[in-house]
Amino acid sequence: MKYARLSKEQFEELHEEFINFLASQSITGDEWEDIKINKPKVAEEELDVFSDLVWEGVLTQARFLEHFSPNQIYLFKITELTINLIAVKVENEEVDITTREGYTWLQQNLMDERVSLYTSSKAISEDRNKDIFALIQQGAVITKGELYEFFEKHLGL
């Protein structure tokens, strides 16, 4: 398995796609029930293959990621060759930007001396999707990139 098995909730959400996946392998509903009971290892392998296919599709489409912690925001833009980072750090222990109040404080105090903005860029490895998945495993989520683009304009990048 290259990535991670989907959760029970994710499998439920992708129920129709999983049925189509099984059908593409000529596995009927009855055969799947039989495999789950009599060949649990084969069933596990099928779940893993499907999970990797889903992850591969999602990661291939990913262009922006965000990761929030109480005093930092990491905004990532994935291009063909690089992963670009805009980091926002709040050095005010009274502010937790993962809360509505803290995020509002950040919006109103972006130019405050306790707010630092950093940028960085690194080359994508040979396995772009694995690079993105590693960021997701660390807590990043895929987004449409509005926040990244806001800061990109603000910083004049």
From TrEMBL:
InterPro entries: DUF6495 (IPR045470)
Name this polypeptide is given: DUF6495 family protein
Matching Pfam families: DUF6495
Lineage top rank: taxon: Bacteria
